[in-house]
Amino acid sequence: MEGSIVKSLAVVCISILWFRTFRLSALARWRGWRRWLVALSVLPAIVFALAMQAAYEPAVFVMALVAIYVAAEHYSGLREAARDLKEGNRRLRRNVDAVNDSVAVVSAKVREATDLVGTLLNAEGMDNWKFELYGEYKKSTRRVDGVVRYFDIDPLWWRCRSGRWAEYFKSAEDGDGTLFNALLACSATVQFVADLPFPGSRMSWSAAQFRDLLGLAWQLVVFAEVARRRNNPNKYLRVRISGAPSWMHVVDSATYQVVERHSLAQSTVRRLDKNLSTDPDRNRLSDWARRNIRTFAFRGTPGEEYLLGCLRIATLEAGEDDVLKGASLSAVLRELGMFTFIDTPGTDFIIVGKPDEVLASASIPIITRDDALTLCIEVFERFLQDYCFDPLEKAGLKDALEDGTTGNVAERLA
Fold it and tell me: How many CB atoms neighbour CB 392 within 10 A?
């Protein structure tokens, strides 16, 4: 009994010795250590196998040792793989940190370049600038002076297919990102300057020119509604038509400048006062830009006079061509290019069934052609209601058809 216990203990000890020895041998980096470890483990096993030769078959013991050796190799391999995995994870984290540092450096360089060169006014850039500009309007308390090259119309208006202004004003009042919402929160004086062509007789109006008139009328209607709600004549909102050469926008002390290129999508905008650290420097810059804008505004004509002049000329053209008897607004707008504008693909809306409908983004309303006509006409109807001295005469439009005179539109303004 005691001999069996001793033999069992010897087998256990030799097994443990072999397992740990070959595990250490597999993990050892230096081959000399491996040879010494194998030699030290083999010697006790040989002695035990020879001593126990008469008791049992040595091959059984050898098979057990081989199994232990294989188990030790597998265990060592798994440990080695785990160690390599941890080392790989550490290298990966270092690489990720290095990439993040590089991205941060590149982002800083891009921001610096953007500050110097400006933001490209493609569709995304224009939306971002408009969102930033409307945010500045809301905070403004002194003056907003800006040169306008494109009269923006809120997409929300095109979604009000009924053409009811009350519906638009109610939705836009609570809708962030609309001009009406921004101006309601603005307590400053607002003055825009736009460079539009002088209207002439027998002038062929393009879709782009009608879009300018439509945008001007739409913004004048919004200005009139905001002025009514403000009820403060000292804080006016107005548009002047004048040939301002520089496209700038000044909101209190914030100064923006657009570098105009061949097209709007190729132009860039940047905030000039962004890198100025002191208020006096920002104020001097904004005062210089504001004086430039106001000089051209002083030389220009009110936007409502310009628009009424265009309507008067178009009314004469419609009457001479016998399009419709009487001052039909639809016929007048036809002369100004309304149908050409609606049938020309643009960025304001997309007509249902047109080929470009499938390419429309979610931000562009999709409406019917009749809805587009209704909305365009409603803009000019509301404009005439807001800015004509006598809404029935519509600032002499009817008289122009009857007596063929143009007169002075300013005499009929409110």
Answer: 6
Structural contact between residues 329 and 317, judged by C-beta atoms closer than 8 angstroms: no
Phi, psi of 81 (to 5 degrees): -65, -40
Query: Please, which residues have CB within 8 angstroms of residue 282's CB and are 6 or more apart in sequence?
Result: 253, 254, 255, 273, 276
What residue ranges do the domains of the chain occupy? 2-92, 149-243+300-412
Q: Contacts from 40-44 at CB under 8 Å and sequence distance 24+? A: 41/17, 44/14, 44/17
Q: Give the strand pairing for 350-351 and 366-367.
A: parallel
Taking alpha carbons only, the member of 219, 216, 211 closest to residue 137 is 219
Contact 311, 397 (CB under 8 A): yes
Is pTM beyond 0.70? Reply is no
Query: What is the C-alpha R_g of the chain?
Result: 41
118-169 tens-digit pLDDT: 788 888 888 888 899 999 999 999 999 999 988 999 988 988 866 689 889 9
58-86 residue pLDDT tens:
555 555 655 665 565 666 667 777 777 88
